[in-house]
User: Fold SDR family oxidoreductase from Amycolatopsis melonis.
Amino acid sequence: MKTVLITGASSGIGRATALRLAREGHHVVLGARREDRLTALAKEIHDAGGTADVYRLDVTDRADVAGFADAAVEAHGRLDVFVANAGVMPLSRLDSLLVDEWDRMIDVNVRGLLHGIAAALPHFRRQGSGHFVTLASTGAHEVVPTAAVYCGTKYAARAITEGLRQEAEPGIRVTTVSPGVTESELADSITDPGAKAAMAGYRAVTLPPDAIAAAISYAIGQPEGVDVNEIVVRPTAQR
Ligand SMILES: NC(=O)c1ccc[n+]([C@@H]2O[C@H](COP(=O)([O-])OP(=O)(O)OC[C@H]3O[C@@H](n4cnc5c(N)ncnc54)[C@H](OP(=O)(O)O)[C@@H]3O)[C@@H](O)[C@H]2O)c1
Assistant:
């Protein structure tokens, strides 16, 4: 049984990951801004016989994320897995100049990830073990129009996580999971009408979020000496 912290657990992939890992007997600590959603999810987990804590956090706030990790260690004595999952995707072409949305993607998808590493790494080093899981994207492997900034943040997430893998001492495992199109609320943040219309077609075929949860479960379920570094999971029909 591991203590697993998940950012962005209030919907989509984070929620599915919490449900699956709790079902598999792990203790999950649920982080996001929408605390009502987290409380309802924790109740669902408890009713099914699992255990979960709720922690309200904004990943753009470094102190919030540090508090998330510290509180888990205080309550459970250790932090085994940190899933850096929170992300936003308000797509648009660069010439739309929706610069505030660019900033938000950088703040959540890049700074939020760095805050997670800063929060988890001291505990992992003290313990001599730990597993950091980053949710990147197939957008960390290719760029498409309207997704320049989003893909930029996901290339960055993948690069930073690979750097963490190379620098981390033995005992610390590091995994990047790159989902293809997956059913979630991610596209709801798109305000640009052109990007929104394009996404309707692009997202017509989706994976259930539990398909990504299963990949995360596979990575953390390996024996200690086995480090699954990268997993890409697409719907069969996605090119
Ligand atoms: N779905 C896909 O097709 C797909 C494909 C590739 C990669 N991904 C990646 O998978 C991850 C999960 O996304 P999803 O698809 O499950 O989307 P989602 O349903 O929109 O979930 C995103 C989660 O991130 C949280 N979040 C957003 N901003 C936050 C902040 N400032 N602080 C804390 N939490 C924040 C949200 O919680 P609150 O709003 O409650 O804070 C929510 O729980 C993201 O990193 C995304 O880029 C998704």
